[in-house]
Amino acid sequence: KAGVTQTPRYLIKTRGQQVTLSCSPISGHRSVSWYQQTPGQGLQFLFEYFSETQRNKGNFPGRFSGRQFSNSRSEMNVSTLELGDSALYLCASSLNGASTGELFFGEGSRLTVL
Amino acid sequence: DQQVKQNSPSLSVQEGRISILNCDYTNSMFDYFLWYKKYPAEGPTFLISISSIKDKNEDGRFTVFLNKSAKHLSLHIVPSQPGDSAVYFCAASAGGNTDKLIFGTGTRLQVFP
């Protein structure tokens, strides 16, 4: 079956702009989690959506937001971009939730903020 | 506050030898632990997991050990192969449906011939 698909794979933005990233989970998976990966910081949890509801949220400012649609596809948005937002953003899907089993990750969206 | 720590950013091991990757955690509520492997330009992939009711779980060349009193887990790869060269992340959660999965900072393993 198809894996987790993230779009776009690469993008470049300037400070102050906003960006929207998309994630299509594995068919049948109801949970979508988002992580930010930066050098030296590992994978920092952003949020998890389950059946269109935000189930959990990490310690990121309100500029970071997300949503999940009825088909389980998810988007995350970052407004008023800062240089420090440059990172690889990873989306992961799972059947019942991020903390209960294996996560299946997409290849990520690499954001560069200039 | 880094609840899951991987204090070795890198590890270099000769092919055929044992690789030992370590992970420490601070939250005593964590009861489910996983290891993920990540190659460049790819997303992480699940490797092996262990719940707190066990102290060891084995899958082929990969074994995870859990020491709850020390809040420490380790991943053993025996024998190490060049294809094992990747970044390894440990992760932990308290297991509840609404709990989040917390990842460590990763250890880059290089297996040389």
Comma- or semicolon-separated keywords:
heterodimer; A: 114 residues; mainly beta; seven-stranded mixed beta sheet; four-stranded antiparallel beta sheet; B: 113 residues; five-stranded antiparallel beta sheet
Quick synopsis:
Chain A has 114 residues and is mostly beta strands. Chain A contains no helices and eleven strands.
- Please write the string of helix (H) and strand (E) elements of chain A: EEEEEEEEEEE
- Helical segment count of chain B: 0
Question: Quick one: biggest sheet of chain A?
Answer: 7 strands, mixed
Q: Structural class of the secondary structure composition of chain A? A: mainly beta
Structural class of chain B: mainly beta
Oligomer designation: heterodimer
- The amount of helix of chain B comes to under 10%
Give the count of helical stretches of chain A: 0
Strand/helix succession of chain B: EEEEEEEEEEE
Largest sheet of chain B: 6 strands, mixed
Number of strands of chain A: 11
Major protein interface: A-B, 27 and 28 residues
Mean pLDDT reading of chain A: 93
The end-to-end span of chain B amounts to: 38 Å
Calculate Rg of chain B over CA atoms.
Answer: 13 Å
Number of strands of chain B: 11
Mean pLDDT of chain B: 93
| Strand coverage percent of chain B | over 45%
Shape of chain B: globular
Spans of at least 5 consecutive residues with low confidence of chain A: none
Question: Can you walk me through this structure?
Answer:
Chain A has strands at residues 5-7, 10-13, 19-24, 31-38, 42-50, 53-57, 64-68, 74-78, 87-94, 104-105, 109-113. Chain A is mainly beta and 114 residues long. Chain B has 113 residues and is an all-beta fold. In chain B, 37% of the residues are buried. The chains are: A mainly beta (114), B mainly beta (113).
